[in-house]
Specification:
The complex is a heterodimer.
Chain A lengths: L3 E4 L2 E2 L2 E2 L2 H16 L3 E6 L3 H8 L6 E5 L7 H15 L3 E5 L4 H12 L3 E5 L1 E4 L4 E7 L4 E7 L4 E5 L14 E4 L11 E8 L12 E5 L9 H10 L3 E4 L1 H5 L20 E5 L5 H7 L4 E5 L13 E3 L3 H11 L2
Helix pairs in contact in A: 3-4, 5-8
Chain B lengths: L1 E5 L2 E5 L5 E2 L2 E2 L4 E5 L1 H15 L5 E7 L5 H9 L4 E5 L2 H4 L6 H15 L3 E5 L10 H9 L2 E10 L6 E7 L4 E8 L2 E5 L11 H9 L2 E4 L1 H4 L10 E7 L8 E3 L3 H14 L5
Classes of the chains: A alpha/beta, B alpha/beta.
The complex binds flavin-adenine dinucleotide.
Flavin-adenine dinucleotide sits at the interface of chains A and B.
Amino acid sequence: MSDVLAVAEHRQGELRDVSREVVTAGSELADETGGDLHVAVISGDVETFADALSLEGVDTIHTVAHGEEFNHDVYTQAITQLADELAPGYVLAPNSVNGLDYAPAVATRLGVPLVTDTVDLATDGETLVATREMYGGKVETTTEVDGDQVVATIRGAEWAPTEAAGDATIEAFDAEIDEDAIGSTVTGFEEVAGGDVDISEADVLVSVGRGIDEEDNLDLVRELAEALDATLSSSRPIVDAGWLPANRQVGQSGKVVTPDVYIAIGISGAVQHVAGMKGSDTIVAINTDPNAPIMDIADYAIHDDLFDVVPALIEQFS
Amino acid sequence: MKVLVPVKEVATVDDEFEIDGTAIDERYLGADLNEWDDYAIEEAVQLEEDGIVDEVVTVTIGDEDTEQTIRQALAKGADRAIRVWDDALEGVDLLDVGAKVAILEAVVAAEAPDLVLTGVQSGDDSFGATGVALAEAVGYQWGAVVNQLDLENGAETASVHRELEGGIEELTEIDLPAVLTIQTGINEPRYASLRGIRMAQRKELEHQTLDDLGVDASTVAGDLRLTEMYEPESQSDTTVYEGSAEDTAAQLADLLREKGVAQ
Ligand SMILES: Cc1cc2nc3c(=O)[nH]c(=O)nc-3n(C[C@H](O)[C@H](O)[C@H](O)COP(=O)(O)OP(=O)(O)OC[C@H]3O[C@@H](n4cnc5c(N)ncnc54)[C@H](O)[C@@H]3O)c2cc1C
């Protein structure tokens, strides 16, 4: 009969999609344990957020009004106090950049196990079984987690967001935030990746990854992009190396793209990359590795060396 | 100012591999310096070169074989290294975050660094949590997914950018001492020069056991148990083009024309 406490996420006044996903994951777990689903929403316009989070399966929403934006010290304090009071079996957080900025601290402070980046969760009421990936998505694993209380983070887009409205009880939680213990201050936000081209507008993307090996070899994919009248984009390592500007990066920390055709060349398909391109209509992967995770979402694939295939493809269009 | 950089040797997997129980068969595994740690080392070394930091110490949990990776970090400019290994760690399938933190916590207590720079995650088990959990355990401040760090000489706070999703960065002031988890792209990691490699041979690489650190061997067993490992199910309707590069390119070209690309 353990309860579940799920933590919502918002930024600059907007609830993020993963908040509805963490509700789904939480309500599935609560169904399995026969417990209640509690949702915590911390900072910002908590009342408006709470109304939006009154979704099917949610029993109680706890609002903690403190500050406007995310601050990990406030989150850590509020969640540990809620966990002390509600004694949930499971605390669920998004495996987002902010989730990873407080969930490990919450687990440590509570002295309980932590399992991150889960893609599936199940429980028999005693042991939590988490499904995760390892080696950049090449294998999937199941992991058993012992403990009366467990903190787990969930990967985005693995659980469908709950849309159906519910009638949760909304309660203001009077967290005692120790201001002296706040050791970091958020002073602002900055948007990156503006510039000449908007890859999110392109119909056809030729996207290049680390398989290209050297900066000079980029000319080869440039030539292909020209031949196909396509726009050039890339995975993160190409941008990290300074070979292409940040506005060409597809992915979680780059741009979300939805072209008609996405040609992934020498890209493994790490989850943070896939987050940015999985909505493409047709996905083509050219990769020597038949086990690369990109193959799981590709509609068409060539398991071969890009340095053989790309020149042959250019030839086809010249 | 002293910086501690936890450095991990990660397992790399061949294109073709087999799974043996709950692990990838060793024949298909290689080893490399964790990508994110490479950037953390570079950041620490640059701070030292800028005269803000006096000493860069690395710590690695790993057996003797990991010394080749540790030497890479030393060749890139770290001053000395600590390697923690113990028989108790030999049979552990999955060293979870709690277990890593128990060990690193003891090293932080002994070294008392002003700054700890870890990678955001490791490329093999990708928990992405060790840095923040360590900060909480040792009572340091922290920041996760840092892609810009500004630190003045003698400063009591670090100014960082945290890279959020969707091309948004958060600007944050963090009190020291702190643990920062470093994101790729924050700098350009150097290659180890020949001179660096030669000098690394002479740098101190100290081995410590759990006993030396006063860590209870039972804590490293951890709370997580790997029970299964398998290849993810692939979407069955992927069309794989077969044949020579010319053949596959021709088939792909037909598809692209069909889709209205480059008529
Ligand atoms: C918080 C966070 C945010 C991130 N955000 C993003 C993001 O927005 N976008 C992003 O892309 N990544 C992002 N990443 C990084 C991500 O985890 C991966 O490291 C990255 O996507 C890997 O890029 P890649 O596929 O190009 O390189 P690798 O993973 O190194 O893959 C290279 C691929 O090329 C293939 N290859 C090699 N040689 C050849 C050849 N000759 N012919 C054909 N194929 C070849 C290999 O088989 C391999 O599959 C983020 C990571 C973190 C932790």
